[in-house]
């Protein structure tokens, strides 16, 4: 396929993409190859925590690139050490393994659980996960996920992931047996449509894991690093996991993620885990720059204010257009459309003139909103006005 002067055939065809090529971004806005601007409320699926091309990240990349890019993970480097120490202090977890993607972090969490089970649970290897959960696209994380339509992809599946319904503690209890090593979940299921685990459920899981000597693994790839209005979503439930995966917003747009664990759970022996870019100083420097901003109490207060502002707009839209309501936490929110018009709205929003709007529909009846954590209030107002007009036409 050719898009004006751009040839697309060399890229492997793994997604249905619209006929446009983005060439520039700034803050809440993306610009395509024809010069059209788009208000972006997807931000790379909650990746660009400070918006497109923030000066903090540009400065961190430029400075680090002139100093040290990649000495090999066989050696310590100061940027990775600084990021690890900071994440450990902020999270209350003891050990940090920097990686490149959330899927890689979750894959590491599964490996850690199996090693833990080998050492402390007589070879237990099962990780209880949840229906509609999403943990990545490696073979193990796809098996751990409960995403509809994945049941028969890339068979045979990696075994060892019995699934319970979210927020059903009795169902989890029934799945625990001698082969169980851990329980793994997202505090808020993002791909499922921003479906939260309740505070009561998270606290019950923590108690259950303690009772049975299991690891509690939280996948905070989407919810972590300020997205829900606290630095980590688990803080809002007053629980601390044994293992946690971070990604997306940690790098603010660059490929950076991390696997964190309490000392008791950090049981890898030398040679059992690694990767060419684990602890890459260029990416680690960006992670520290992101945390310089996002970890500040006043910034997190701003996320909560912006989340409340977005929530008010979505509630008004739901009432005005007789939709099925909204839900979420901080700046991870969903609007339940009550009927399968999400895809059509996404397309119509993108085609708006003179400026387009980028939205996400993880399920046919839902829209998901993941703007930059510092999104200007006027951009939230602008998005709501555009969506109001689209919903009026969709009646």
List the helices and strands and how they pair.
Layout: E1 2-3, E2 6-7, E3 22-26, E4 29-32, E5 37-40, H1 43-46, H2 55-65, H3 78-91, E6 95-99, H4 102-120, E7 126-130, H5 139-144, E8 163-164, H6 169-175, E9 180-185, E10 188-189, E11 195-196, H7 199-212, E12 215-219, E13 243-246, E14 257-261, H8 281-294, H9 297-320, E15 326-329, E16 332-336, H10 342-350, E17 356-358, E18 366-369, H11 377-393
Parallel strand pairs: 5-17, 7-8, 7-9, 9-12, 12-13
Antiparallel strand pairs: 1-2, 3-4, 4-5, 6-14, 10-11, 13-14, 15-16, 16-18
Helix pairs in contact: 2-8, 3-8, 9-11
Structure in words:
35% of the residues lie in helices and 17% in strands. By secondary structure, it is α/β, with parallel strands linked by helices. A 7-stranded mixed beta sheet has the order 6-14-13-12-9-7-8, with helices on both faces. The mean pLDDT is 96.
